Amino acid sequence: AAIAAFAKLCLELLVVGAPPRLVGLSIEAQAEELLHAQIALALSNAENVGAPQGGSEAVGLRLSFPEHALSLTRDLASLRAAAVREGLLGEGRSALNLFSRALRAVDNTAEIDSESGLPPKQKHSGALGRLLWAMAVDEARHAELAEDTLLWLQKEAGMVAPNVTLQDGDISVSEKQASSPDETQVLQE
After folding, report:
1. Percent with pLDDT over 70 in the chain
2. Neighbours of 70 (CB within 10 A)
């Protein structure tokens, strides 16, 4: 779904006249999400080696997406809402989750089994940790694209970017409130 979401974002950015840099970053994010999907399918396939053939193994490493109709309009409010929901929160939480999983995978390498010389349950946890870390960096960059989009919307249309905080391992977003006309002007700059 993330591959399609970034394809849609690219088109929406074109429709609203966003800077080429944002369009380019959304194209890069789409390519990174395709790579993430391929990695996930390959890891899933590797875990199921020896399992009865069926499901995704029967068709190989393929991606599918149900047929959709797509309507593109110059709707800055919807673009802003999606940047908050899918970008800051969705991609941001995904990055945090992957960073956490990467650290756990790397930590597992410290517990070496004396007989086999391998970590328990995860033979390649160091490599997996590095792979998860790289994916987390990509997800964090996707959340940053959402932030850049929100800042552009603030500059372009006066839509104030929200406050983003990290607390207790989770991301929260709250709307900024301008208390005076002067503060509104500062927030818009």
Report:
1. 76
2. 9
pLDDT digits (tens, 9 = 90+) for 131-141: 999 999 999 99
Q: Which of 164, 136, 161, 141 is nearest to 150 (CA)?
A: 161
Q: 36 near 135, Cβ under 8 Å? A: yes
CA of residue 22 relative to chain centroid, distance? 15
Contacts of 108 (CB under 8 A, 6+ apart): 119, 120, 121, 122, 125, 129
CB burial class (10 A; 0-12, 13-18, 19+) of residue 114?
A: exposed
The pLDDT tens digits for 8-57 are 999 999 999 999 999 999 999 999 999 999 998 888 877 665 555 544 44
Distance CA(31)–CA(46), nearest Å, equals: 23
- Name the residue type at position 114: S
The Cα-based distances of 140 to 61, 85, 93, 134, 137 in angstroms read 26, 14, 9, 10, 5
Q: Find how far residue 93's CA is from the centre of its chain.
A: 8
This prediction's pTM: 0.78
Cα dihedral 29, 83, 68, 75, rounded to 10, equals: -130
Tokens of 4: 């399609």
